[in-house]
Amino acid sequence: MTALVFGCCRKADLSAVSTKNNGQFIIRLIDFLRTLASIFQHNPMNMRITTGKRLLSLLLPLILSHLAATAQPKVFFEDQIVEPGTTFKASIKVKDFTDILGLQFSVKWDPQVLRFTDVSDFAFDYNINENFGFNYALSEGRIAFIYVDPGLDVFSLPDSTVLFAIDLEAIGEVHDTTSMRFWDQAPLPAPEMYNGNSQTIPDAGFDFGMVTLDVETATSLNSVPEKAALIESYPNPFTDQITFVLSLGEAADAGIQIRNVQGQLVYAADKRLNAGRNQLVFTKQLFGQAGVYTCQIKGADFTLSKKVILVDR
What we know:
CATH architecture of the largest domain: Sandwich
Mean pLDDT: 79
Distance between the termini: 34 Å
Number of helices: 4
Number of domains: 3
Strand content: 35-45%
Structural class: alpha+beta
Largest sheet: 7 strands, mixed
């Protein structure tokens, strides 16, 4: 494709752009914008700004369509609430999983809260001995996984397909929580995905989930408003501060904890909450740096957890 600059014979060649090559697209786009800037600066025809706006309006669909076509693949856990003493599946699902040659990662959880029992729900015909590592599963709550297409061909999966599930027993107590997170510390393999050229996909996503033990199995802690309910948290993602609005059936003392994606505690405080509506404000200084965090508000008979994202301006 050739992008023509109105009022001038100069043009930028975008014909070599591939929707599978973000770097090439960005380089070509930068070259084009430099050409455009040069024309505005040395414009013999006194091009009007309105013409530039018209050009940008034509470019915008191209940029947006390219970004949509190059969404980065990710694997993720969903948040869950389970009853103590029960067994359940922590499923690893995929999104935007297109033209993948292989991937590897390790998963970590708190072995005092969850006990490993098995793996199941395979998307492919995995070999237990070759594709999984269980040496640290019981003692430290860690397993490893690696898979490459046997024929060295790329593969694709529909969104929300289960790559595999980790079967676990909830051995902790009511209100215990643990993250199911992708681990990047030795000796287990770091999270990586590979494209058809056997190259690492730099922006591939590995999103953690939270498991909370509670006496009521439900999809959300908001299902027990007689105890406590998280009404909203906004804005999320946030840049300066995030506000939590929650409602309690009765006044209670609560502990507040903020943990990063590695499960490390970055902030802790105790607070007396009133019956009814409460509003808590957390500033970015409490988090330290941009990233994904879990905020937990825990009372004697309730636990509220929320995943939040702090972004740079």
